[in-house]
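STRUCTURE REQUEST FORM
Protein name: Peptidase M14
Source organism: Mesorhizobium helmanticense
Requested output: structure tokens
Priority: standard
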Amino acid sequence: MQKSIERIAGDSEGVSYEFPVFRFEGSDRAAPSAYLQAALHAGELPGVVAIDALMPMLTKAEAEGRIQGDVTIVPQANPVGRAQYHFGEHQGRFHLGTRNNFNRGFPLLAAPDTKLLPDTALGTADQRLKTRLLQLSIGHDIVLDLHCDDEGLAYLYVHTSLWPHMADCAAAMGVDAVVLWDEDTDGTFEGASIMPYQNVPADVARFDRRVATTVEYRGMLDVDGALAASDAEGLYRLLVARGALVDTALPAPAPFTGTVAPLENIDMMPAPRAGAVLYDVKPGDRVTKGARLATIVHAPGEADGRTEVFAPQAGLILTRRSRRIIRGGEDLLKLVGDSKSADARSGTLED
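Status: completed
Returned output:
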């Protein structure tokens, strides 16, 4: 294993940020290569501890000569966001200087060629970071961006061009659901990883062996040793299933049996009033049309101080808010409906 340190210049003199990159060299140039990163939203830590648990497994595989394809690991991909605190609260989703989401505004290239990327010396610190992360990741066959939701199931976002080819990956990782998408106008990291392959020859795109996905590892508070070990085993199984690693003791993944639905089926359920949220459902629950999902207490103690929210269709509760204070119009949860949502959204679901 080789460790290097990446440095990103800050937006004022004397300020810079750094993060480590770990590289395991494969023995077969024809084998799929992999790139894994976590905490692009710097406060989302389930992927960080999963990588921490995965590293000894990769080190052991390296010592035993079982790494076939190059594997690049970035355990904490956002040193800019890691350093951001405001009144004692960590702020790792948006860059405080530009107010841009750290997982938006990545360059969407016309081809998988790092020469098309902007100069890493240009732009603000968050823009330079995004360019550098793409430089590190473009060209790999397997690209995993590890995130988490507020409270939720483990699920993947997958571009339609990669499904059902990636069903083995979903099964290997043991996720509960897959959300399929086909449009990215916001420049997410996942979009920047797969869109360059959409208009290139089939022998370059290689969708049958390509993996690019945003992994949502449940919720913000799901950071513990047992979950980390389980997630690390899922990542390891994926790398074995796709040929980046060799482990003859592992069987091939079973068929994926979780929920698979297009993005347009998701109802986000905006809150009709501001107040305290009393949820009737939790992630993983199946609901019928008309079932009560939550109650908003907007005028405590008053006879008409509660407003109920009901399911617009039958489906699966994928996520919900971790905090119980809500503003009017703010989304309450993700309901993966059995049919297209009446207010179907394209692109990213949230800011």
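Reviewer notes: The mean pLDDT is 97. The first helix runs from residue 46 to 63.
Form closed.
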